[in-house]
Write a structure and sequence with these properties.
The chain has helices at residues 35-45, 84-98, 146-160, and strands spanning 10-11, 16-19, 69-72, 75-78, 104-107, 118-122, 125-127, 130-132, 173-179, 185-188, 199-205, 207-212, 223-227, 232-235, 244-250, 264-270. With 275 residues, the protein is an alpha+beta fold. The chain has one domain (33-270): Alpha-ketoglutarate-dependent dioxygenase AlkB-like (Jelly Rolls). The strands form four sheets. Strands 3-4-14-11-16-9-6 form a seven-stranded antiparallel sheet, covered by helices on one side. Strands 10-15-12-13 form a four-stranded antiparallel sheet, with no helix packed on it. α1 packs parallel to α3. The longest helix is centred in the first third of the chain and has 15 residues, at 84-98. The radius of gyration is 17 Å and the shape is globular. The model is unreliable at 1-62 (pLDDT under 50). The structure holds succinic acid and manganese (II) ion. Manganese (II) ion binds next to loops.
Length: 275
């Protein structure tokens, strides 16, 4: 499984560290194909929050999604937005995406540090601090999965009451982040996009403390939000350029049966505006 017991990252280049995504546990293969059914479900919803939003995964999902919480103007947290089956399916997809040509890499920062979070990019390759059409080795970036575009638009509808308008630049990039027990992400802005479109974030696996701050400074005021598996967080409008980060995860809090024994996955879906 992906987690602290993963192979030590192999040196990939002078700029990047790469690691293989560990094998999945064979006991946890039972992914129920929610994609078609759930997308139809989403579409039938007509923009109303509910259904899948409210822990609709069934099985042994004991909780229903809680009410949306506005953390700051333009920033909305929807606990339990993804049901258990959708979460399992996304975990399995993340595992497949991580096996792509880009691998799961720890980026080297411009000042020399290496990120503790491992990530893979879809649609556009991201490295601090720019997007590119190709991977560092020159290969094309894996395509942006349509299911993530659908989820992002549905997430915006659930958070703000309506999906992005027809003239809005499309969602076209996703970063899949993996946090082992010691990983964290410092306070930063998502500022490499050329489009003012809400960022949509999905959490899977271990819970974390997500620190959501202000648009001027990395420091206070900020709000610490607990993001658990299945939670949706959307920030746009006046919150689009807010500093945010993950000061810690909560190892061992992933729901059983998710297919992710350890660690936290985050899928951040954005519109690059790069056309
Ligand atoms: C990010 O800001 O790119 C990731 C946030 C998260 O892991 O929740
Ligand atoms: Mn970010």
């Amino acid at each position: 499984m992906i987690g602290p017991t993963s192979p030590v990252p192999l040196s990939f280049s002078t700029r990047l560290h790469r690691t293989a995504m560990p094998e999945r546990c064979p006991m946890r293969r039972g992914v129920v194909g929610w994609t078609r059914a759930d997308l139809e479900h989403h579409q039938r919803r007509g923009g109303a929050p509910g259904d899948v939003v409210r822990g609709g995964g069934g099985l042994n999902e004991p909780l229903f999604g809680a009410e949306p919480v506005t953390v700051a103007p333009g920033a909305v947290h929807l606990p339990g937005w993804l049901g258990a089956e959708a979460q399992r399916d996304l975990v399995e997809r993340c595992r497949e995406w991580s096996r792509g040509p880009g691998g799961m890499i720890r980026h080297r920062m411009p000042r020399g540090g290496v990120m503790s979070v491992r990530m893979t990019a879809l649609g556009w390759f991201w490295e601090p601090y720019r997007y590119s059409r190709t991977l560092p080795g020159g290969e094309p970036v894996p395509p942006f999965p349509r299911v993530l575009g659908e989820l992002a638009r549905d997430g915006v509808a659930a958070a703000f009451g309506a999906p992005p308008g027809p003239d809005t630049p499309p969602y076209d990039v996703a970063l899949v982040n993996f946090y082992d027990a010691g990983a964290r992400m410092g306070m930063h802005q998502d500022r490499d996009e050329q489009a003012d479109v809400p960022v949509v974030s999905l959490s899977l696996g271990d819970a974390c403390v997500f620190r959501f701050g202000n648009t001027r400074t990395r420091a206070r005021p900020y709000t610490d939000v607990e993001l658990a598996s299945g939670d949706l967080f959307v920030f746009g409008g006046p919150a689009r350029m807010a500093y945010h980060g993950v000061p810690r995860t909560r190892p061992g809090t992933a729901p059983p049966g998710l297919g992710l024994a350890e660690g936290r996955l985050n899928i951040t879906i954005r519109a690059s505006g790069l056309g």
